[in-house]
Design brief:
Blueprint: H1 6-11, E1 15-22, H2 27-39, E2 42-48, H3 57-63, H4 66-69, E3 71-75, H5 78-87, E4 90-95, E5 102-103, E6 114-120, H6 128-133, E7 136-139, H7 151-166
Parallel strand pairs: 1-2, 1-6, 2-3, 4-6, 4-7, 5-7
Helix pairs in contact: 2-3, 2-7
Length: 167
């Protein structure tokens, strides 16, 4: 199946993408983000606020060990994560439905740019103050009666789209 080892993963060239989880409460969602991040070689997952951190059996249940391959860092306050990312010259975007947001298919990446995407709480979304601190918002177009997706599904769509465009 051409799988690489966790050590080989650590040495691999990464997709210049960090996923920031802003107060994500479900450990299964956290694990799923790690697993998707592993699949597409993201740089790291930043876990913020109430978001749980490894090691944890419920994270492992969906991450299946990806919490050991994908780098991660915890921040008590999401703003501190954004500050670190901006100081490292990342372009930071909230994944949120907001006035003036860019639809994901219309979002154009720039060569040589590092990106971070912020995904929010399952009920409240990304904190407004965090949205305000981002470089912009990206929205996934939706056409049915519901206008929200599970955060792990959102992460999968967004990570894939960034990987496809910059990977």
């Amino acid at each position: 199946m051409n799988r690489i080892s966790p050590d080989e993963f650590k040495q691999s060239e990464k997709t210049p993408l960090v996923v920031v989880l802003d107060n994500v409460r479900s450990l299964h969602n956290v694990g799923s983000v790690f697993r998707t991040g592993d699949a597409f070689l993201i740089e790291a997952v930043y876990l913020c606020g109430i978001t749980s951190t490894p090691p944890h059996a419920e994270i492992h249940k969906t991450a299946l060990g990806a919490e050991d391959s994908v780098d991660w860092k915890y921040f008590e306050d999401t703003h501190d994560a954004l500050k670190e990312l901006k100081e490292a010259r990342y372009s930071v975007f909230a994944i949120e439905q907001a006035e003036g947001s860019t639809m994901l298919p219309d979002f154009n990446t720039k060569p040589g740019t590092k990106y971070a995407v912020v995904l929010g709480n399952e009920v409240k979304g990304v904190q407004q103050s965090v949205v305000d601190a981002c470089d912009g918002c990206i929205e996934i177009p939706q056409f049915g009666t519901k206008h929200s997706l599970n955060v792990s599904v959102t992460a999968g769509i967004v990570i894939w789209e960034f990987f496809r465009k910059i990977g």
